[in-house]
Amino acid sequence: MSSLSQDALTLHGGCDCTSIRFTISIPALVSRPVLPYPDLFGAEIWPPQIFLDHCNKCRRVSGALVQGWLTCPQDWVEWAIKSTSGEESPSATKFNTVDLICAKPGVLPVVNYASTEGVTRPFCGRCGTNLAYVFEGRKEKNPIPMVDIVLGSLDTESLEMPGVRPERQFYWNSGVEWIKRLVTEGDSSVGGEKLPRHPDGSRMQVV
Ligand SMILES: [Zn+2]
């Protein structure tokens, strides 16, 4: 089980240009719903679920070697989005996730990419930061509307909080072999002995 606090806690994040910010309000464990995926996980689990994703599509969309997600009920997430009015410091308006993925181009600085049928991946139209994944078909297995938040879009302070760590790796069999080795074995797996050691002992230069 995750070492995430069993008390209520709040995580923050958003896009690079700060046009879009979000707040994830995680209630105390006793108020978190059990997720209906016992067959998949072999046990009852509670949100948030934090995981790495090796599928090719998520890798391409993110542009990162490995995508990371934080999955939770949509009603835990509040979005604050600045308008496109061109003001120097436009105030942010609060939205829920459904509002976000229904945003019309040009009204808000949100672009919703329909990557596959029933899937919406909102990203910031100003800076390009990928923010979330919403899958309509998930309702068939889980009546609670869920959203996957791009883990890397969380603020550094939130990512460094105890327990905010990936617990599992999804789509392992779809992954690129050397990326999987890099994630599980560390940097020596990609360079081996052929690369000179950095003075700090690592084989990939740390700068
Ligand atoms: Zn942005």
Low-confidence stretches: none
What is the string of SSEs from the N terminus onward? EEHEHEEEHEEEEHEHH
- Return the domain count: 2
Instruction: Report the CATH architecture of the largest domain.
Output: Beta Complex
Per DSSP, the total helix count is 6
What percent of residues are in strands? 25-35%
How would you describe this protein?
This is CENP-V/GFA domain-containing protein. GO terms for molecular function: carbon-sulfur lyase activity; metal ion binding. Residues 188-207 are annotated as: Disordered. This protein is of the alpha+beta class and 207 residues long. It has two domains: 9-171, Metal Binding Protein, Guanine Nucleotide Exchange Factor, Chain A (Beta Complex); 176-207, no CATH class. 16% of the residues lie in helices and 29% in strands. It contains six helices and eleven strands. The chain has helices at 38-41, 56-62, 97-101, 156-159, 177-185, 188-191; strands spanning 9-14, 20-26, 49-53, 67-73, 77-82, 92-95, 110-116, 119-124, 132-135, 146-150, 168-170. The strands form two sheets. The chain has a seven-stranded mixed beta sheet. It has a four-stranded antiparallel beta sheet with strand order 1-2-5-6. A hairpin with a 5-residue loop joins strand 1 and strand 2 (20-26). The longest helix is centred in the last third of the chain and has 9 residues, at 177-185. It starts with 8 loop residues before the first strand and ends in a 16-residue tail after the last helix. Bound molecules: zinc ion. The site of zinc ion (ZN) has 9 residues, from loops. Zinc ion (ZN) is lined by residues 15-17, 19-20, 124, 126-127, 129.
